[in-house]
Amino acid sequence: MTQPRFRLDLYRYLAAHAADIxxxxxxxxxxxxxxxxxxxxxxxxxxxxxxxxxxxxxxxxAIAGGAREYGPLAAVGDEIRRTVKSxxxxxxxxxxxxxxxxGLWVAYETLIAPSHVGxxxxxxxxxxxxxxxxxxxxGSYGRPVPALYKDLFADRGATAGELxxxxxxxxxxxxxxxxxxxxxxxxxxxxxxxAPLLTGVDAEAAxxxxxxxxxxxxxxxxxxxxxxxxxxxxxxxTRDADGTSVLHRRAGELAARYGVPYVADNAWGTPFLGTxxxxxxxxxxxFSMDKVAGGPTAGLVIGREGPMVSxxxxxxxxxxxxxxxSAHGKGSHVAVDPGKEAxxxxxxxxxxxxxxxxxxxxxxxxxxxxxxxxxxxxxxxxWEGIRVTRSVNAGGVEINYxxxxxxxxxxxxIFTHEDRIAGxxxxxxxxxxxxxxxxxxxxxxxxxxPGAGTLTEDGxxxxxxxxxxxxxxxxxxxxxxxxxxxxxGRG
Length: 491
Fold this sequence. Notes:
The protein contains 15 helices and 13 strands. The protein is an alpha/beta fold.
């Protein structure tokens, strides 16, 4: 039999032995002695709107209390605004919507998409977006430019078409994708699609690449949109002296130079404690309150007060026509109204982030300590090239293993977002068979955050459950590494 030589040989071999790999994972589950009533009831991360984390007692009580009260919702919305202003200053404003994706849509629609009113041909606008992870969210609101990116995704989203997301596309809007210098976009996975591998991103060169794209499309340049994440696995590991991501700063400077908005999608981010909108120069930043922010299902939009007027007007909350400061009415985007309980719960979560940050930071620090301890226990069995990063913005710890491919023909197998959707992500399948709920593990990047059955009602980390989850992650990486060795040695 021919010796395997290429990545496609590795992933073909893994696909052929998927059932055996999952069965080996079952043996790991038995060895870890995970209690039967825990299996499938705790996981590595609560950073997913399809399986949100548990809520702290204060948030639950605020939702229940608010549900029993009668009064204008504009008053609750204004308290959210005051809470945000108390942290960022009076030059910033906020509004709650029903999801971060809804906030992204409203931001694109109101700040970047071209005007359609009036005589004459409609203008076109172009948003410049780094080719990074999760661009099916923040990079899917226009036609892809260059055209080679029009089939960038196989199955992401819910509507068929170019980019897999034809249904989100706004009229006369293009999205200019920019490859990041230092990144790699090799094909990986059983589904076999490009995997953005971003730990090697050169921040200064990447900023210059965004600027070149803006110069090329200057006549139609309408805005910059990036992720707001701050870890090496997302390409934002290079920092200034004050700890701010260099690439974020260059994106903000570019937008300011052209006088266009900079929108940062920080859905998996922690308001107030993570990426600072003021330091990166963003005009608008978006959060999912139900991910690491500790709130109910909702999205939070924070931004400079000028651009926020347009966003709030579109939502129908920026004052009645007869002259009030605030409203809770029916604007063009009333469909993304968050509802009463989400308003009360999000306000409580934001106050907790502002007034008691140690309650949020303690589980992050405890998780980080567990990851480092378990990593040391498994270091001798795992190949070199694994990188562990604590991130307050991400609400936990990033484990990135793309470096295992640097000094050998094959590293630990990398599965793409397409693999996750197709059910061919063997890391996820193995972890689930062990009894731990998987979550974000695309493109050699694993995020561990408290909250997926690993927080007590008062917000303390259940260290026993988290340690089991972390140990399962490293055992799964060992399992996949072992199967890679078998594939490489096959004769």
